[in-house]
DNA sequence: TCGATCATG
C-alpha cells in the first residue's frame, strides 16, 4: 500500500487520467463502430427485423454483424416488453470474447446489460438484455423452458458452419416460433395420439404424428423474432427452410487475396508445402505464413523438415531458430524464420506463442490444423499455404464405428482458409492443387448431423416433446438408419418405451448433460450403490484422453501409468487416477490457496504424464453432474472397496458394447460381429481377458476398442437379458 | 504396439 502522504496528489491524477482514458476509449469505440460496413445499414436492418419474423443475414467477414446487430436491436426497442436478445455461437471462446467486447462498447461490466453463458459459467443477471451463449447451451435451456419465453429475439450466428447443435436448434426454433405466434392468435392445436397395436418397431416410428409444441393457452407469448446469420454466400438453403424468409446481404471488409494454383497435381503434399514455404520466405515481402496441415504428426514432421532445410541454406541464414534463441543471433542475418505449431491438444501455454508478434526481421511460419480456420485467429498472416486436405470424422451407424480419415476440403473451407491471409492487408494464398481440381470440390462440408451418432439428439428432441424424430423437419435430414439405430439403442437402454415414447428413465437421462449411455450408467449405479464411483468414471470417460505420452518419453510415461493401473481394466484405472489427483489436491488445499493448489495439481499432472487440461475438464464435469444427480434425488453412495460390484455395474450399463476373445486373440463385438483389437493404450492390451465391455470403437489402421474393462459373460445374461440369452 | 481434426452440454 502506498503511504497516505504521497497519496492525495497521485490519486487525483490517476482519477483524471482514468476518466480521460474512459472518454478516449469511448470515442475510439464510437468511431470504430461508425466505420463498420454494417453501420451504414443500421436503420434498414432494424426495419427489416420489425417487418419480418424471420430474417436471414448474409454477412461477410469483418462486417461487424455479431457485435453490432444486437446493439441496434436493443436501441430499436426489441427488449421493451422485458424480452431479451439471445445470440448463439458454435464455440465457447467466441461467446465470451464477443460478449466482453460488446460490454466494453456499451461501457458496462460484463454480466449486467450484456452477458454470456456457457457450460460451467453463467455471467448474466436479471439486468441482462443482450446474452451471448453457445448453441448447445440454448438447446439445454429449451428443456427447462420449451417456449424460450424470455427471449424476444434469437440470433443464430455462424449458421453456415452447420454444427449439430445449430441444425437441431434451427428445427426447434421453427417450432417455437410457430407455437408462440399461434398462442397469440389463439389457434388451438389438436395433438392427436396414435395407437400402434400390432405394428413392428420400425412401423411404429413411421406412423407417429409430427409432434410440435402445443400452443400454450394459459399464457400468451410475444412472437419470437428469428435471425439466422451466415457467412456463406448462399442464403437459399436457410431462406427456403424458413418458408421463403427474406435474406439481406451485408458487405464485409476484407483485403483482397490473390489465389495461386499449381500447374500439375502434387503427389507429395508435405514436400510441396515445404517448397512453397521456402519460396515465400525467400522471394516474398514481409508477412507471416499460415500452413494448413491435417494433424499433429504431420505438423511435427513438417516442422522438423523446415529446420533441416534451414540448415542447408547458405551460411548467413543457417541458423536453427526457435523462439527464445533468436536474441543471440546477429541482427543482420538475412533469413530469419520461426516455426510455431498449433493444434488443439497442444498445451495452452504453447498455443499462446503463435500470438506473439514476430521480432523485427523475422518471419513466422504457423503450422496449424483446421483450428486456425475458425477457432483461432492469428494476426499478421499475409500468406496461406493450403494443401486442400483435412482430417474429418465419419461415423458408420450400422457398426457404430467412428473413423478419422483424410479427405479433401470443400470450396467453402478453401475460401475460409484463403480469407485468413486478408485480415491485416492484401494477401496471397497458395493452393497446392490445380484450379480444375478446385472446381470439382463439393460446395460445402457435409453437415455434422450426417456424420455422427444421434442418440443424444434423439433423446433431446423426445424430451422436448418431439416424438416423431424420423419425420422431424430438419434443415437437412440425417440418415434414416442413423436415427433408427439411435432409437433402437435408446430402447435397449430403457429410455424409450415399446410404443416409442420417452420413459420416466428417459426423462431423467435427458436432464443429465452427458451421452445417453453415461446418463443411464449413473441411474443404474444409484441402484447398485456405487454412484460415487460411477460419477467419476463418467466424468473421466467424457473427456479427451487423460494420459499424455510424448514419443520421446515413452518409457517414463509407461512407468507413470503403472502406479495407477488396475488389472481389471481402464475404468478402474481412471478411477485410481481421479482419486490420486483429488487426494493430492485436497491435501494441498489445506495449506495453500485455491490458486496455488490448482497450480501444484498441474505440476503433479505433468510429473505423472497426465493431461492437465483433460483432468480439469473431468473435474468440472464431475462437480456439475454431481449437482445434477443430487437435484434429481438420486442417492450418491459409495461401494467403497467392492470393485466387483462396480464392474458388475459397468456391465449392467455398457452391455451394448461388449466383445468376446477369439482363438487368435482378436475380439468379436457381440452385437455387430465386428472383429476388433484392444487399443495398445489400454491397460488390458496384453492381458486379453475372455470377455470385455468397452466405451469407444475407432477405426484407424485397425479397428480398436478403447476404455476397456474385464467382465464375466454370465453377468451380461443376468443383467441385460433383453439382449443376451444363456447358451444352452 | 497407437498416435485424436474441431466443437458442445
From TrEMBL:
CDD domains for this protein: DEXHc_DHX33, SF2_C_RHA
Keyword ATP-binding: yes
SMART domains listed in its UniProt record: DEXDc, HA2, HELICc
Catalytic activity: ATP + H2O = ADP + phosphate + H(+)
Coiled-coil residues: none
Residues annotated as domain Helicase C-terminal: 274-465
SUPFAM superfamilies: P-loop containing nucleoside triphosphate hydrolases
Protein known as: RNA helicase
Organism: Datura stramonium
Amino acid at each position: 500500500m502506498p503511504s497516505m502522504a504521497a497519496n492525495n496528489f497521485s490519486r487525483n491524477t490517476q482519477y483524471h487520467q482514468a476518466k480521460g482514458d474512459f472518454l478516449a476509449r469511448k470515442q475510439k469505440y464510437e468511431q470504430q463502430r461508425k466505420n463498420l460496413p454494417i453501420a451504414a445499414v443500421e436503420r434498414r436492418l432494424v426495419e427489416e427485423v420489425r417487418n419480418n419474423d424471420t430474417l436471414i443475414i448474409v454477412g461477410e467477414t469483418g462486417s461487424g454483424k455479431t457485435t453490432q446487430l444486437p446493439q441496434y436491436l436493443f436501441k430499436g426497442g426489441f427488449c421493451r416488453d422485458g424480452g431479451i436478445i439471445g445470440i448463439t455461437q458454435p464455440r465457447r471462446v467466441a461467446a465470451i470474447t464477443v460478449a466482453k467486447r460488446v460490454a466494453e462498447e456499451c461501457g458496462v461490466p460484463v454480466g449486467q446489460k450484456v452477458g454470456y453463458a456457457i457450460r460451467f459459467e453463467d455471467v448474466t443477471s436479471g439486468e441482462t438484455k443482450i446474452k451471448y451463449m453457445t448453441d448447445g447451451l440454448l438447446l439445454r435451456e429449451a428443456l427447462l423452458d420449451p417456449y424460450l419465453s424470455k427471449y424476444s429475439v434469437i440470433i443464430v450466428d455462424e449458421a453456415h458452419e452447420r454444427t449439430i447443435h445449430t441444425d437441431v436448434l434451427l428445427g426447434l426454433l421453427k417450432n417455437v416460433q410457430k407455437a408462440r405466434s399461434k398462442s397469440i392468435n389463439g389457434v388451438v392445436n389438436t395433438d392427436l395420439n396414435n395407437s400402434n397395436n400390432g405394428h413392428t418397431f420400425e412401423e411404429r416410428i413411421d406412423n407417429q404424428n409430427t409432434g410440435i409444441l402445443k400452443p400454450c393457452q394459459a399464457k400468451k407469448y410475444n412472437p419470437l423474432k428469428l435471425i439466422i446469420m451466415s457467412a456463406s454466400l448462399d442464403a437459399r438453403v436457410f431462406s427456403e427452410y424458413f418458408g421463403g424468409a427474406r435474406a439481406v446481404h451485408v458487405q464485409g471488409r476484407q483485403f483482397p487475396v490473390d489465389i495461386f494454383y499449381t500447374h500439375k497435381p502434387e503427389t507429395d503434399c508435405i514436400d510441396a508445402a515445404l517448397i512453397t514455404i521456402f519460396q515465400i520466405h525467400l522471394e516474398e515481402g514481409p508477412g507471416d505464413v499460415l500452413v494448413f496441415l491435417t494433424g499433429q504428426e504431420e505438423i511435427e514432421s513438417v516442422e522438423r523438415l523446415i529446420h533441416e532445410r534451414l540448415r542447408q541454406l547458405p551460411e548467413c541464414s543457417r541458423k536453427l531458430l526457435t523462439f527464445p534463441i533468436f536474441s543471440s543471433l546477429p541482427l543482420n542475418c538475412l533469413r530469419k524464420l520461426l516455426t510455431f505449431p498449433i493444434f488443439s491438444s497442444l498445451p495452452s501455454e504453447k498455443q499462446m506463442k503463435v500470438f506473439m508478434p514476430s521480432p523485427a526481421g523475422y518471419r513466422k511460419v504457423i503450422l496449424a490444423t483446421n483450428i486456425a480456420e475458425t477457432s483461432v485467429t492469428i494476426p499478421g498472416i499475409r500468406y496461406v499455404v493450403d494443401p486442400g486436405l483435412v482430417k474429418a470424422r465419419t461415423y458408420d451407424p450400422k457398426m457404430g464405428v467412428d473413423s478419422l480419415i483424410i479427405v479433401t476440403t470443400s470450396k467453402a473451407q478453401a475460401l475460409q482458409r484463403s480469407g485468413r491471409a486478408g485480415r491485416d492487408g492484401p494477401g496471397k494464398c497458395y493452393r497446392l492443387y490445380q484450379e480444375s481440381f478446385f472446381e470439382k470440390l463439393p460446395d460445402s462440408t457435409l453437415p455434422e448431423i450426417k456424420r455422427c451418432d444421434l442418440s443424444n439428439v434423439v433423446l433431446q428432441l423426445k424430451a422436448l416433446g418431439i416424438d416423431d424424430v424420423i419425420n422431424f423437419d430438419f434443415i437437412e435430414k440425417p440418415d434414416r438408419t442413423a436415427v433408427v439405430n439411435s432409437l433402437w439403442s435408446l430402447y435397449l437402454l430403457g429410455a424409450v418405451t415399446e410404443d416409442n415414447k420417452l420413459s420416466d428413465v428417459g426423462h431423467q437421462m435427458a436432464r443429465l448433460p452427458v451421452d445417453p449411455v453415461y446418463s443411464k450408467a449413473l441411474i443404474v449405479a444409484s441402484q447398485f450403490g456405487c454412484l460415487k464411483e460411477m460419477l467419476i468414471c463418467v466424468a473421466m470417460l467424457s473427456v479427451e484422453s487423460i494420459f499424455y505420452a510424448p514419443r520421446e518419453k515413452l518409457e517414463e510415461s509407461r512407468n507413470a501409468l503403472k502406479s495407477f493401473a488396475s488389472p481389471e481394466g481402464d475404468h478402474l484405472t481412471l478411477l485410481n487416477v481421479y482419486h490420486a489427483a483429488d487426494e493430492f489436491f485436497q491435501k494441498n488445499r489445506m495449506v495453500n490457496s485455491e490458486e496455488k493448489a490448482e497450480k501444484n495439481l498441474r505440476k503433479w499432472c505433468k510429473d505423472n504424464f497426465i493431461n492437465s487440461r483433460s483432468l480439469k475438464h473431468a473435474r468440472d464435469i464431475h462437480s456439475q453432474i454431481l449437482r445434477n444427480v443430487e437435484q434429481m434425488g438420486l442417492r450418491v453412495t459409495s461401494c467403497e472397496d467392492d470393485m466387483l460390484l462396480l464392474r458388475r455395474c459397468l456391465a449392467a450399463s455398457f452391455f451394448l458394447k461388449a466383445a468376446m476373445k477369439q482363438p487368435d486373440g482378436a475380439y468379436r463385438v457381440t452385437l455387430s460381429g465386428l472383429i476388433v483389437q484392444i487399443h495398445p493404450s489400454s491397460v488390458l492390451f496384453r492381458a486379453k481377458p475372455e470377455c470385455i465391455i468397452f466405451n469407444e470403437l475407432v477405426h484407424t489402421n485397425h479397428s480398436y476398442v478403447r476404455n476397456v474393462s474385464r467382465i464375466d459373460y454370465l453377468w451380461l445374461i443376468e443383467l441385460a437379458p433383453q439382449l443376451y440369452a444363456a447358451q444352452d
